[in-house]
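Course assignment 3, question 2. Fill in each field.
Student: A.L.
Task: Predict the tertiary structure for the chain below.
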Amino acid sequence: MQKFLLLLCCLAFSLFAGPKANWILYPERKGTNLRQERYFRTEFEIAKKPVKQAAVFYYIDDDGTVMLNGQTVAGKSTRLSLFPTNTLQYDVTKLLADGRNVLSAVTINKGGNAGFILRLAITYQDGSAQEIVTDTNTWKVSKAKADGWQAQGFDDDAWTIPESAGDYNADPWCEKMDTIALYANDDAQAELAR
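Answer field:
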């Protein structure tokens, strides 16, 4: 009962929290991208003040790697089958650069639905916060890798706007994993991990 109430609280929290991450994917017919890489990227600016902590939360269906400023956040590739119920969370404070930054991901679909969802939560020393999420407004996607695609200032004008499959509650992922943890506060995440 406690976990159910906690999930309801987390859901209510997520309704009023900052921007919502969306599952994004390359716009193509389902099943046409099997075992092929897709490349996602976005650039963002951080405030000119000290950062206390930055953490990235994400899922990739089925396999892939997330990078911040060209550095792999997990130190290795991740597979959906290895974490069916847990949000991947990594401290990326040391990977942030002053000013402009680049989030990027390589994804591989191995069957069924493809998808990628991410939230970067930045907390500043003064208590203010900033969030970067996967969406169709700021992210771009490509079938082909290009030199420098993970670097700040890369010209992605020829890249495609990703398709959205919905927010963290979207089927089929909401039934397979704890996507609500993408928006749970620290106390709720600790409770969900018990």
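Instructor remarks: The chain is about 15% helix and 35% strand. Residues 84 and 176 are 6 Å apart (CA to CA).
Grade: pending
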